[in-house]
Structures are given as C-alpha cells and as structure tokens.
Amino acid sequence: MSHAVTCTAPVNIAVIKYWGKRDEELILPINSSLSGTLSQDQLHARTSVMARADFASDAIWLNGKQESIENPRLQNCLREIRKLAAAKQTHQQGAPLPTDKVHICSVNNFPTAAGLASSAAGYACLVYALAQLYKVGDSLAEVTKLARVGSGSACRSIYGGWVRWVMGEAADGSDSIAEQVVDEHHWPEIEVLILVVSDHKKTTSSTAGMQTTVETSSLVKHRADKVVPQRMEDIQNAIRARDFETFGRITMQDSNQFHAVCLDTYPPITYLNDVSRGIIDMLTKYNAHKGKIQVRAFSWQVS
Ligand SMILES: Nc1ncnc2c1ncn2[C@@H]1O[C@H](COP(=O)(O)OP(=O)(O)OP(=O)(O)O)[C@@H](O)[C@H]1O
Ligand SMILES: C[C@@](O)(CCOP(=O)(O)OP(=O)(O)O)CC(=O)O
C-alpha cells in the first residue's frame, strides 16, 4: 500500500537576520529573528512525499535531479518524524509504518541556494508534507521545531504573515520555536519587490558562513547580545502599528549589520555586489526623503 502527500511552502525574507548557531546539530540560534512570509503563489517549493513498504531505500530528487539522501539535515528531519510516528503508531490509521521507505520529490520555482531562502521553503515544505503523511506534529509549533532541524530559517515558513523565531534557552531546543506575530491580512499595503542581481549559487552557504562567523567575528557577539533583542521589540511594535518609517529603518540597519558581520568574519564573506550596493544606496536615499524623490532611470552594468 502507498501513501502520498503533496504540499507547497513559501519563502520567507528575514528583516531581523538569523546568523550564528549555539548548537550546530539541533540548529539553535544565537539570536532571535523575524521575517515576512511571501504569498504561496509566488516563490515556493512544491514537495511530494510517498511512502511504500516495497521501496528499497529512501530517496530524494531536487529540481529533477537525484540528490544524496545521506544529507545530514534530511536525515535529521526523517529521523525526528519517524520517532514521533513510532510513538503514535498504535492509533494512526492510514499512516505509513515508520519502517516504510519514503521517496521525496521537490521543485523550487526560483533559484536554489542563491540567497533566496530555498532551504527555508524547501525544509518547511518537506517537514510539513512528512508530518501530514505520518500524521504527526499535533501543533504548528511542533512542526516549526521539526522544520528547524532541517534549516533554521525554515521554521518561520510554517506560518504566513510576520513571524518571529524565538531563540529559546533550553539546551534541547524545546523552546526554540517560530510564532506568528501578525497574520498576512494585517498589513496588506506591504509589497515585496525581489530584485535578482545574481542567480548563481552563493560561494559561501549560509550554514558554512555563519559557522565561520561564530568562530572568528567579535562583532557577532555584540550583535546577538546587545543589538538584536531591542531590535526584535522595536520591529514588532512597528509592524503592529504599521509604522513603515520605523520598520524600514530597522530593516535596513539590520541588513547592513548582517553584511558588516560577514565582513568581520575571517576570511571575510561577501554577499553584496556593486548592483546590490547601488540598490541599497538608492533605497536609503528614497526612504530618507519619505518616498518623495522621483526615481527617473537606473542603469547598471552587470558583468
Ligand atoms: N525544495 C527543497 N527541498 C529540500 N531541500 C532543499 C530544497 N531547496 C533547497 N534545499 C536545500 O537547501 C540548500 C540551499 O540552502 P542555502 O542556505 O545554501 O541557500 P538558500 O536557502 O537559497 O539561501 P539563504 O539561506 O541565504 O536564503 C540546497 O543545497 C538544498 O540542500
Ligand atoms: C541570511 C539568512 O537568510 C540566513 C539563513 O540561514 P539558513 O536558515 O539557510 O541556515 P541553516 O540553519 O544553516 O540552514 C538570514 C535569515 O533567514 O534569517
């Protein structure tokens, strides 16, 4: 007998950035973060999962290409889901056995590993689909914890609207969960414009980059301990009050500090290019004039 589920999950864009882990295995962050989830019909991952007793092994295809199922993140998700399924086995009618093998097929409708949060949409989608398949994850909070062990930012894609990932304090990660701050109807005037300045795979993955940052940057500790807690408070207040001026300022400052921390890492990490720096400069000037300057024309040379 086979069991199958297909889900889509959207991308989320952090306005207070997660950067640095206190536990690499459980994916526990050194600071809380906050993001907006884009609507499902635009940038998303679509994942189908099928479990059958007669599949020889687990397998995954990403964007049409078979990938290694031995990926430790993937293994962590499968193990946690199966652990919950095994605990529930007696009363889960219609769910596969935890011992059945699963085939996973996922497609992103946007560039993968290019800085557009593909791991967030991808793991949120995978974990949600597996939770449906195995009939586990009784609350969305529990599903956010499962998504977190795939990729930290994935826990925020489980909810729509504005979402915070509370860093938590427990060593086992039990209080490191995502929560919705306000839903997607709260601030309908907000529109997200994504300017793709490069669709190449990043030279440094987020996982590797933040690991080197924690090892070498002195600025990141200051950021996590002294800057982010107040910013989290302030940006949530700005979102609740729909105060775009404050929201925009904090978002730009946090993005700038994230890139400063990357530069403070050794060897330094550079995600910005001349085009993105030009866009940041333009937006800073635009916001300073409360949107009242006229944008006539832009032309950038992209080599
Ligand atoms: N749909 C998906 N299903 C499962 N895993 C995925 C999916 N999409 C991406 N991934 C995994 O996430 C990895 C990319 O994550 P990475 O953090 O490097 O980039 P990103 O998430 O696109 O960028 P950023 O984290 O800066 O926003 C891929 O190599 C793959 O292992
Ligand atoms: C810059 C970021 O997008 C980094 C996201 O990092 P990931 O969540 O991709 O990292 P892992 O937990 O190692 O998978 C900021 C953010 O989304 O908060």
Indicate the structural class: alpha+beta
Rg (C-alpha, Å): 20 Å
Number of strands: 11
- Count of helical segments? 7
Q: Can you tell me the CATH topology of the largest domain?
A: Ribosomal Protein S5, domain 2
Q: Determine the mean pLDDT.
A: 92
Order of helices and strands: EEEEEEEEHEHHEEHHHH
Q: Main β-sheet: number of strands, strand sense, barrel status?
A: 5 strands, mixed
Kindly report the spatial arrangement of strands forming the biggest sheet: 1-6-9-7-8
Query: Which molecules are bound in this entry?
Result: adenosine-5'-triphosphate, the ligand C[C@@](O)(CCOP(=O)(O)OP(=O)(O)O)CC(=O)O
Helix content: 25-40%
Tell me the number of structural domains.
Answer: 2
Domain Diphosphomevalonate decarboxylase-like N-terminal: 9-178
GO biological process, one term: isopentenyl diphosphate biosynthetic process, mevalonate pathway
Organism: Capsaspora owczarzaki (strain ATCC 30864)
Catalytic activity: (R)-5-diphosphomevalonate + ATP = isopentenyl diphosphate + ADP + phosphate + CO2
